[in-house]
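For anyone still unconvinced, we reproduce a single protein record, the chain in one-letter code, the fold tokenised, and leave readers to judge:
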Amino acid sequence: MRLSRHHGLAAAISVGVVLLMGGVSLTALAAAHHPPHPDDGPVVTGPGVGPGPRAGTVTRAYRFLNLMMDRHTSGTTPRLVQSYLGGLLGLDGDISSATYDDALVIDAYLAEGTRNGVARAEVIGQGLLYLQAHDPAHDGRIMNQYEPTALRHPSDIHVTDPASNTGNLAWEGDALTQLYSATGVRAYLDGAVALGVWIQAHCRDHRGPGGYTGGDTASGSKIGWKSTEHNIDVYAFFGLLARETGNPVWSSRSAWARRFILAMWDTAAGRFNAGTTGDGATLEHTPQLEDVNSWSYLVLRDRAYEQSLDWEQRHLAVTADGYRGVSICTGNRTGVWFEGTAHLADALELSHEAADRAGAARYLSDIAHAQAKGPNADGLGIMAASYDALNDCQGNDVYASLHTGTTAWYILAALRINPMSPATPISAR
């Protein structure tokens, strides 16, 4: 019965994609008549971003996203966006598109507040719906990574990471919900609901403090551990779904994720733990991670947990090789993680403390310096890290290649946009 229901959801998504490509999306049609040039970019202003140096850096960051989006095809053809450019990853021939990065690029384009911005966000959203509708499992999910090819036929789909991590699915669903809020096109909301249904059916957990598990591995095995970061993502996504669908079941599910998040709070340390081990109950005390503590503030906006921002600035600060910012984790403070520095800047800008907002300005200035002078810099995009193979304390490395996700986070922070609010979509701000 569950399989049959998910087949129905996939069919509805497929119809939505056809309708979008057939002309329901007025913004995409408008873009077809006035296609944005790859170098186009508004002189961006907004709360905290008046005319001046920061506005110029944001404009250049949008130019980078445009260039990356149009790297393999252009116009209104549904597609994803290549995540990295240049550096060691470029030498290795990596052209994959991480769907987490695609969600961030959608958010950044919606934050731009222009017709072309919304049109570009819709093209990526249509790409996500196309992948969802044509996934072999037909159960509502999307994989972690694909090649950023034009999506005209199912044979165009090339998976480069077949895992389905809960946090990535939540970011994809949140982005589709943001698109629905901005455009009113029902197919986006249907796609988001299908992702939420998959998370609820496959990842809800009753062990220990509840919450949601990590999703599926590349081989299709269920992940037993639970991540605070993933539950933060689910809390934001399900909260926004509750607002946009009007269905209170999503509020209840959002609260289930929030319960787990709060159980991870370490009062003595003034920060959140990373999650649990595979038994779903034992706390995972190491490593301590940047995104958990900045994202928790973005999603909760609660003074009771504002210490997490102070903890990050004390325990993750890095000055190395002429660059400043924060590291990924406490176990490796040898280089700057520019994406995480943008997370923290965004959270500090939304803090209640004037000193925090001043700290945000310094971090944004540091990122702008990296945009202009960092390794592999082209003056437009922002690299993920200050050197290649910066270890994340979990067995993975981050590189100094230019990165759409980092660039999108910088845009959001510079415009003082919180992409993780469970109550207020980007289009409402």
